[in-house]
UniProtKB/TrEMBL annotation:
This is DEAD/DEAH box helicase. It comes from Pseudohoeflea suaedae. SUPFAM superfamilies: P-loop containing nucleoside triphosphate hydrolases. Residues 1-29 form the DEAD-box RNA helicase Q domain. One of its GO terms (molecular function) is hydrolase activity. Residues 32-206 form the Helicase ATP-binding domain.
Length: 469
């Protein structure tokens, strides 16, 4: 089915065509017709399934051509948990509405509230905001929601995790009784169901992917590594994927900054994004990650919501999350828009209960991978030792042999040559002792290397591209 069959007007179709977006994703096929009919919608969908277009396209359709918003009024409100995700939604809304007369405003923390107040002074058809900044603007009288006819909650489960539920309830208190609401979430815990039951009216429920199911195109593996050896293992894996876009997840802001410094010691440039970074620092890091001048991004979970960068081929869980659903969110940063991806988790002995919780949720025993050469494998009793038939290394688990990544110079796809380490020795690898737990590697041997399945989706500009986000 094409977008032309979903009831969208020609200006919106023209905008989609100009973006080479021609085929709706499953969540768009299910949600757009229901929203255009005026139904409230509850969408259960992971990131990367195209849900941004699923709610923004019907909003644009229903608002465009109508009367313009009055000063300090908005016709539609989209609430997002993080600045980055809100900015990504705002960009998508602007792209989708480029052929219609529509004003959209972004209101998030970390940017000047005075500028946002000025942008809202003439009114806006669509306001994309984080709950905290939205409440600030309401308190200052910079925006009124009494004429807001449409409201969207995106990543509702993440807003719950962050603690935004009280703010969301207060915001709903400012909205008129007669409104259309849409709620999208990757998981549906009880509190989100209660929120839906209270504020949505007979919603149409659309579910594309079960909450516990990880993307089919993601290859997963786990390395059992002591905590002190994780930075060295991380550097080795990243070196073996030189030139690829890599996202590394750390549990804390301090841990993310520490990893950036550790990677620098191994001649790997990385940038951290988390709540303590200024908006300018975060935007600069994301911009470099998108344009390919930066290949490694270290993120905390909250900051990572909103990273919608095509071509992320590897996600590394340096620290396992305490909540198993978060693991699904993390690895969903790769294998987007029909492409394949790889996810590697490092598991210290004290994290093995967390690994068991993850495997129970996703209903999968994650393959055990051999650690890079020179880095000891952590063990915690005989029952934890993987059997020989389960143990996978760079040859046993979709591994490349022979000409594999040894042809990096010619085969990394971006024309980059392998970087020379600071010590001047060739090979792009740290010397023995350059990182915690790192030992010298014998000549000609390589640490773990995993091959990603080639995507059948083709490159940019090919027909059949889907609207991601």
């Amino acid at each position: 089915m094409k977008f032309e069959q979903l009831g969208l007007s020609q200006p919106i179709l023209d905008a989609l065509n100009s973006l080479s977006i021609t085929e709706p994703t499953p969540i768009q096929l299910a949600a757009i017709p229901a929203a255009l009919k005026g139904n409230d919608v509850v969408g259960l969908a992971q990131t990367g399934t195209g849900k941004t277009a699923a709610f923004s396209l019907p909003l644009i359709e229903k608002i465009s051509g109508g009367r313009r918003a009055e000063p300090r009024k908005v016709h539609a409100l989209i609430m997002s948990p993080t600045r980055e995700l809100a900015a990504q939604i705002h960009k998508s809304v602007r792209d989708f509405s480029r052929r219609v007369k529509l004003r959209s405003v972004l209101a998030v923390g970390g940017l000047s509230i005075n500028t946002q107040t000025k942008n809202l002074s003439g009114g806006a058809e669509i306001l994309i905001a984080t709950p905290g900044r939205l409440e600030d603007l309401i308190r200052q009288g910079a925006v009124s929601l009494d004429e807001t006819r449409f409201v969207v909650l995106d990543e509702a489960d993440q807003m719950m995790d962050i603690g935004f539920m009280p703010a969301i309830r207060r915001v709903f208190g400012h909205l008129p009784e007669k409104r259309q609401a849409m709620l999208f979430s990757a998981t549906m815990p009880d509190e989100i169901r209660k929120l839906s039951a209270k504020y949505l009216r007979n919603p149409v429920e659309v579910a594309v992917t079960p909450a516990a199911r990880t993307a089919d195109r993601i290859e997963q593996g786990v390395m059992h590594v002591n905590s002190g050896n994780k930075p060295a293992a991380l550097a080795a894996v990243i070196h073996d994927h030189e030139g690829d876009r890599v996202i590394v997840f750390a549990r804390t802001k301090h841990g993310a900054d520490k990893l950036v410094r550790k990677l620098a010691q191994s001649n790997i440039e990385a940038a951290a994004i988390h709540g303590n970074k200024s908006q300018g620092q975060r935007e600069k890091a994301l911009a470099r990650f998108r344009d390919g001048t930066l290949h490694v991004l270290v993120a905390t979970d909250i900051a990572a919501r909103g990273i919608d960068v095509p071509g992320v081929t590897l996600v590394i869980n340096h620290d396992l999350p305490n909540v198993p659903e978060v693991y699904v969110h993390r690895i969903g940063r790769t294998a987007r828009a029909g492409k394949a991806g790889l996810a590697i988790a490092f598991c210290a002995p004290d994290e093995r209960p967390l690994l068991k919780d993850i495997e129970k949720l996703i209903k999968l025993s994650i393959p055990v991978l051999a650690t890079p050469e020179g880095i000891a494998e952590a063990t915690s009793g005989a029952e934890q030792e993987p059997q020989e038939s389960q143990r996978r290394g760079h040859r046993g688990w979709s591994g490349k042999t022979g000409s594999g990544r040894g042809g990096q110079k010619a085969g990394n796809g971006n024309g980059q040559k392998r970087r020379r380490p600071r010590n001047g020795k060739p090979g792009g690898r740290p010397e023995a002792g350059s990182g915690e737990g790192q030992a010298a590697r014998p000549e000609g041997k390589r640490p773990f290397r995993a091959k990603r399945r080639k995507s059948g989706g083709g490159g940019n500009g090919q027909g059949g591209q889907r609207a991601a986000g």
